[in-house]
Amino acid sequence: MIEIPIEKTTQSKLSQVDFNNLVFGSTFTDHMFDMEYRDGKWQNPRIIPYGPIQIEPGMSVLHYGQAIFEGSKAFYTKDGRINVFRMNKNFERLNCSAKRLCIPDIEEDVYYTAIKKLILLEKAWVPKDRGTALYIRPFIFASESFLGVRPSKTYRFMVILCPVGPYYAEGFNPVKLSTSGEYGRAFQGGVGNAKAAANYAISLFPANEAKKQGFTQVVWLDAKEHRYVEEVGTMNLFCYLDDTLITPPLDEGTILPGVTRESVIHIARDMGIPVCERKIAIEELFDAAEKGTLKEIFGSGTAAVISPVGELHHKGQTIKINGGKTGELAQKMFDEITGIQYGEKSDTNNWCHYLD
Ligand SMILES: Cc1ncc(COP(=O)(O)O)c(C=O)c1O
Description:
This protein has about 350 residues and is α+β, with helices and mostly antiparallel strands. The chain folds into 2 domains: about 15-165, 2-Layer Sandwich (D-amino Acid Aminotransferase, Chain A, domain 1), CATH 3.30.470.10; about 175-340, Alpha-Beta Barrel (D-amino Acid Aminotransferase, Chain A, domain 2), CATH 3.20.10.10. The protein has 8 helices and 17 strands. The structure holds pyridoxal-5'-phosphate.
């Protein structure tokens, strides 16, 4: 196992945190993991107090955006243990993203040990209430001071942690979504299936426009025909049509292969619900809503877990889904996944990684 020295903070912020009012992503724990890549290898792993890092204005990531990240969660389970949900999936996806962005990959032992050691050090920061978690944000960026479009020769791999409550202000209540209009998020051959920082930068303008019109998020349609639904800001999308759960396929490389998406597919099949990964045209959803065969739409993602969609807007028309209320399947899925995460339901698929 890799050796990771720890430098402890002398000024913990823990006592200042209001664990009853956690706003997603705004509170950071006392320590962070940091490692650097230079001379062709990852080196100098360490855990240090959370705080500012030095960057040079010429740092490659600031100019060319060579950066990737991950997002997973640790849960305080009902028997007082800490569970990182499907940690291996995030590790695998980090290295897939790294490959696409010409970033050197991370060894499994380094990833697991860094996260485990950091969380165990920050044990007191893992919130205990149902609906809360410790969000884990590993990220890698190009750190060489160099102007010119080529892969950086140096990188930083860091992990920071945030105690979090619900992702959306709506909590588990249905969100209102609008399609992406003239904008696109990803194209075949691009980086839509990587967790590249660039994907989020380009989503900001359309998301802001949608917010101004009262929508929570944008549903991305494919960038070529602006016709097929792909995913939502930080969620994959599921449509419960007739008696089948349908989700857009990953084969064109334009959708992030969500860990929660995979869990939903697995659980639905275990429940005996047919699941189909296929393209879904936006007009198919509007037609189905009219015919009454569109039962539910929901998003899936680490941050929100399951997020029911109450309204969908496209080109001046709006459909209400399930009367704007949380659907039965979305609720069941939420209960099942969170039940496993908090150790209340049996983990038959070995999705829980207990740290202690
Ligand atoms: C663009 C995008 N799609 C989907 C997801 C859902 O993925 P996961 O379930 O792994 O969190 C995320 C969140 O990571 C995302 O950023």
